[in-house]
Amino acid sequence: SLFANTGMFTLQRCFGVLFIITSLQVISGRIALLVIDVQNCFLPTGSLPVNDGDQVIPVINGIRQQYDNLFSLVVFSQDWHCSDHISFASQHDGKNSYSTTILQYDNTGKLCESTCDVQYNLTQVLWPDHCIKNTTDAEFAVNVTRSNTDVIVKKGYHCKIDSYSAFFDNGGFSQTELDVKLKEKDIKSVIITGLALDYCVFYTAKDAKRLGYNVYVVQDATRGVEEGTTVSAVREMKDQGINIVQSSEMSRVM
Ligand code: VGL
Ligand code: ZN
User: Fold this and answer.
1) Bridge partners of 187?
2) How far is the CA of 196 from the centre of ligand 1 (A)?
3) Please, which residues have CB within 8 angstroms of residue 27's CB and are 6 or more apart in sequence?
4) Rounded to an integer, what distance in angstroms lies between the CA atom of residue 230 and that of residue 240?
5) Active-site option among 129, 137, 155, 206
6) Whether 60 contacts 39, CB under 8 Å
7) Is the pLDDT of residue 54 over 70?
8) Residue nearest to atom 8 of ligand 1 (CA)
């Protein structure tokens, strides 16, 4: 098992015999490490700074160093936006960054800009301009360990819809190649790290769970954009059967 959750156990007496029941979580099947959006844009000096976002880098590098041979696949996702992306506050007159708006889509996933048959209303947080494709800001953090066998999955490249999850856009209209890449390698479990815990890590973890993977989010290998959304994201992930673990709980007895 990769995670030995030795902290939790129950004592039970039955016919005079004491049983100790430990809750060992055993990771079964082939494992992928997902490194979500560890890009300059989300570092403290980036365009959409995440507090202490740089501090995930040594943790992720440590996980790779210690366990790399246990991962059948390592995937880096990359937020990759048009310069006039719909998620940018700059594209919405009179709107400030970190406020929200409602975006309307028809049943084909097309943004309703004038008259159209509205089928979906998506609440969109409006962000500072960030991770614009082919800029230094959108590049992976220089210090994060990468290998030429790692798979890169770009997301958020459709100009008119946002994509927090590395699997689907926010409306569930289009899909990246991530699920296919995982299935090709017969991956059963995903270990998720990176930025930001309350957005792209959260939505990637929920989609992975829904798609049937065993999901582990390494909490100290992530950081959130905002305290309140981070707390509720962790609670919701736990409720959905997503395992929230610490990198120190990863032991090597597989
Ligand atoms: C993200 C906000 C906007 C993320 C991406 O990677 O968590 N957050 N775009
Ligand atoms: Zn983005």
Assistant:
1) 30
2) 6
3) 1, 2, 3, 189, 214, 216, 254
4) 15
5) 155
6) no
7) yes
8) 199
Ligand 1 pocket check for 37: Cβ under 6 Å: yes
pLDDT the model gives residue 6: 43
Compute the C-alpha angle 140/145/148, nearest 5°. 85
Q: Please determine, for the modelled complex, whether the ipTM score is greater than 0.90.
A: yes
The alpha carbons of the chain give a radius of gyration, in whole angstroms, of 20
pLDDT of residue 223: 98
Whether residue 159 contacts residue 195, with contact meaning beta carbons closer than 8 Å, is answered with no
Active site residue 68: no
Residue nearest to atom 2 of ligand 1 (CA): 199
Q: Can you tell me the mean pLDDT for 41-48?
A: 98
**In a mutational test of the pocket of ligand 1, which residue from 34, 38, 48 has the highest number of ligand atoms less than 8 Å from its CB?**
48
Cβ of 179 below 6 Å from ligand 1 = no
What local confidence, expressed as pLDDT, does residue 28 receive? 72
- Percent helix, strand, coil in the chain, to 5, is 25, 30, 45
User: What is the pTM assigned to this prediction?
Assistant: 0.91
Active-site residue flag, 155: yes
CA of residue 124 to ligand 1 center, whole Å: 12
- Tell me which of 194 and 12 has the higher pLDDT: 194
SS3 146: coil
What the block records as the tokens of 239 is 């409720």
